[in-house]
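Input (structure):
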């Protein structure tokens, strides 16, 4: 209660000092789920049987302040209060936990702070858009245990939806064309390491210094059919640790989305090759693909998504696959009830290491 009154005093003081318009919004989610896991590390005799209630991951309060400079540029400040930063919520290092300032005008928008990359904002990602926002939200992973003995690659571009200190620029749209660029000094920054780690990355094999992402986009409409296309290219410095050198980042990502009436669908694919891996160790393939479809009518929506990714070692290909079929109903007043049926599989070479099927329900409230 004391912290709540301090926040109100802070908001009041800032409003009086800078004459900014301040709005407060929020989001809460609670889930219940259960999974039948038939394989763990290749064995059916594992004793894993997860189910129950969860507080989700993304519950938060968001404060947004808007104002203008003396020269007429628009200012937007965003600050997020998460419920907590414990392991069970794991929401400290995601881009929805934002702390940033943006300046916009006829030139476009420049933003700096703890915020997502250009690709996070610009690529089509219906994996986060179908009911329950699964599989992108990863809530389903609370009901299964994955294979930690083999290497797999994720289904999104490098550092998607993370929030280390980042500067980025988005152009205005010109005849349907637009572009964005972002720069992150050190992708290993998170709530545990603190901000301002301006040296080398503090973890390796996936973290980079000087992560730079370029994204070009084109949007058009033809006879009521909306079409959106993006292309992204990411670079970064992999660095070295003692005598071990890591490959720099070189990654391409494409997405295409279509929409017509209440139907929408997209495909997104990418390839980061041997980025972030030990140089000359024989490993060298990291490819990912997702495709989704969704239909909405009135308060009801249904959707399907599949994510698939391959990680190529020196001797085999390890595959990870997730499928989600979901439905949602908008209750009104910002509340929604949603359900998702999911399947998850990890295969190392030809051996199934993880196999689980389950169901997840979510009650959410946005205000």
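Output (sequence):
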């Amino acid at each position: 209660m004391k912290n709540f009154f301090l926040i109100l005093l802070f908001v009041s003081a800032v409003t009086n000092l800078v004459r900014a318009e301040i709005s407060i919004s929020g989001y809460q989610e609670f889930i219940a789920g259960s999974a039948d896991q038939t394989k763990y590390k290749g064995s059916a005799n594992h004793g894993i049987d997860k189910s129950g209630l969860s507080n989700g991951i993304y519950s938060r309060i968001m404060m947004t302040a808007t104002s203008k400079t003396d020269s007429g540029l628009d200012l937007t400040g965003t600050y997020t209060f998460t419920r907590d930063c414990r392991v069970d919520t794991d929401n400290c290092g995601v881009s929805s936990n934002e702390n940033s300032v943006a300046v916009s005008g006829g030139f476009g928008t420049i933003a700096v702070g703890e915020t997502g990359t250009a690709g996070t904002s610009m690529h089509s990602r219906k994996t986060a858009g179908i009911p329950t926002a699964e599989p992108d939200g990863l809530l389903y992973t609370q009901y299964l245990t994955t294979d930690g003995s083999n290497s797999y690659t994720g289904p999104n571009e490098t550092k998607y939806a993370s929030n280390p200190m980042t500067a980025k620029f988005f152009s205005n749209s010109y005849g349907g064309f637009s572009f964005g660029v972002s720069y992150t000094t050190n992708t290993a920054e998170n709530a545990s390491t603190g901000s301002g780690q301006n040296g080398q990355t503090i973890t390796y094999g996936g973290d980079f210094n000087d992560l730079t992402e370029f994204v070009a986009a084109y949007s058009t409409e033809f006879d009521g059919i909306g079409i959106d296309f993006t292309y992204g290219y990411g670079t970064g410095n992999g660095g070295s640790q003692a005598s071990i050198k890591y490959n720099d980042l070189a990654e391409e990502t494409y997405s295409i989305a279509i929409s017509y009436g209440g139907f929408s669908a997209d495909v997104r694919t990418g390839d980061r090759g041997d980025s972030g891996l030990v140089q000359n160790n024989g490993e060298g393939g990291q490819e990912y693909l997702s495709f989704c479809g969704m239909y909405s009518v009135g308060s009801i929506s249904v959707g399907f998504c599949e994510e698939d990714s391959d990680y190529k070692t020196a001797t085999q290909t390890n595959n990870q696959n997730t499928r989600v079929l979901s439905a949602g109903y908008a209750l009104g007043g910002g509340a929604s009830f949603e359900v998702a049926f999911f399947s998850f599989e990890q295969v190392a070479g030809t051996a199934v290491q993880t196999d689980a099927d389950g169901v997840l329900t979510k009650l959410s409230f946005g205000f």
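Notes: The chain has a mean pLDDT of 89. Residues 140 and 360 are 7 Å apart (CA to CA).
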